[in-house]
Design brief:
MJ0674-like, TIM Barrel, iron, Aldolase_TIM, iron-sulfur, 10 helices, about 300 residues, alpha/beta, ten-stranded mixed beta sheet, metal-binding, 10 strands
Length: about 300
C-alpha cells in the first residue's frame, strides 16, 4: 500500500490538490481547504448503516464511517451538517484504525468510507494499520463522484467497491448547485477509471457485493431532463458493467430556501418518469426506491456514535 505515499506528498503537502478544485490550501499548517477541513482527521459517525443498497447493507449493515467536510458541498446536501464541518470529533490515525476493526467485529458487511477524499493522507495509513491487524471486509469508497483520476488510480487494490454519485450531466446545474462547472467531465473520467479497475462485479452467496461499481443518482425536483441525460450517459458508456441506483429520497432541508425550485420533494410522477426512462433504455441492473424514502429519518444522526 506504500505506493500512495509519494503521490500524497505531491498532492497534499505542497498545498492541497487532492480534489479537482485544487484549492492549494496549506491544510497541514491549519488552513482550511474548500472542504472546510485542516489536516486534523474528523468524523461524525461510525456505525452499522442499514440504508444503503441491499447488496451493500444486507441485514447486518454496512460499516459506515462518515467523515466531516466535503469537496463538493452541494446547496441541497442531505448531510449538510457534516459536509460543512459543523459536526464531528477529532481522532487519531490509530483510533481510526481501531474503528475500522470494531466495525468488522460488529459483523459489518463492508467498511464504508463516506466522503473520504480530503482525508486520504490519514485514512490510508489507518487502513494499512487495520489490515495488518486483520481487517478483511471489502472497502467501499462512497463519494460524490467529483474526483481526480490520479486519486482513483492510487486507490487501485485498496478499494473493492466503488459507490460514486453521478449527479449531473449539465454543467449549468453543476455550477449552480455545486459550484463545480467541470463536475460532468471530472465525474465521467473518474467513473471510467473505477470501472476499468473493477472489471466484473462479484457477489457472495448471500448476494452481498464483494467487488463492483454502483453509481447513484439522486433525482432532484425539476431536473428530470438532466436525470434522463445521466442515465443515457451511463447506459451508453458502461452498459451492464455497472449497477445504477436511482434515488427518490431527496429531502428539502432549511438551507435550500435560497433556491426555491429545490424547496420541495420530488413527486412520484417525476421519479417514475426517470425510472421508466431507465427501462426504456434497457437498463436491467437498477436499484429503485419505493415507499416513504423522502424523509428526514433517512438522514443519520451525526452524534459521533462509534467515534
Amino acid at each position: 500500500m506504500n505506493e500512495w505515499q509519494d503521490m500524497i506528498t505531491t498532492l497534499y503537502k505542497n498545498g492541497c490538490q487532492l480534489c479537482p478544485r485544487e484549492c492549494g490550501a496549506d491544510r497541514i499548517h491549519g488552513q482550511t481547504g474548500f472542504c472546510g477541513m485542516t489536516d486534523e482527521l474528523m468524523a461524525a459517525r461510525a456505525a452499522l448503516h442499514y440504508w444503503e443498497e441491499p447488496c451493500i447493507s444486507g441485514t447486518e449493515g454496512s460499516g459506515a464511517v462518515f467523515f466531516s467536510g466535503c469537496t463538493l458541498r452541494c446547496v441541497f446536501c442531505q448531510n449538510a451538517e457534516i459536509a460543512a464541518g459543523h459536526a464531528g470529533k477529532m481522532l487519531s490515525v490509530d483510533r481510526l484504525a481501531d474503528i475500522f476493526l470494531e466495525l468488522q467485529e460488529k459483523k459489518a458487511n463492508n467498511l464504508n468510507l463516506v466522503t473520504a477524499t480530503h482525508f486520504l493522507p490519514l485514512i490510508l495509513p489507518a487502513l494499512e494499520k487495520a489490515k495488518a491487524k486483520g481487517l478483511k471486509i471489502p472497502v467501499v469508497y462512497n463519494t460524490g463522484g467529483y474526483e481526480k483520476t490520479e486519486i482513483i488510480k492510487m486507490l487501485d487494490g485498496i478499494v473493492d467497491i466503488w459507490l460514486p454519485d453521478h449527479k449531473y450531466r449539465s454543467s449549468e446545474l453543476s455550477a449552480k448547485y455545486s459550484r463545480a462547472k467541470d463536475y460532468p467531465e471530472k465525474a465521467a473520467a473518474a467513473l471510467e477509471q473505477m470501472v476499468q479497475q473493477t472489471g466484473v462485479s462479484v457477489f457472495d452467496k448471500r448476494g452481498m457485493m464483494k467487488k463492483g461499481v454502483i453509481v447513484r443518482h439522486l433525482v432532484l425536483p425539476g431536473c428530470i431532463s438532466d436525470s434522463k441525460d445521466v442515465l443515457e450517459y451511463l447506459w451508453d458508456h458502461f452498459g451492464n458493467k455497472i449497477y445504477v441506483s436511482i434515488m427518490s429520497q431527496y429531502t428539502p432541508l432549511p438551507h435550500v430556501t435560497a433556491w426555491p425550485e429545490l424547496n420541495r420533494q420530488v413527486t412520484w410522477d417525476e421519479y417514475h418518469e426517470v425510472v421508466d426512462y431507465a427501462r426504456f433504455l434497457g437498463m436491467s441492473q437498477v436499484y429503485i426506491q419505493e415507499g416513504e424514502c423522502a424523509k428526514d429519518s433517512f438522514i443519520p444522526a451525526f452524534d459521533c456514535e462509534g467515534i
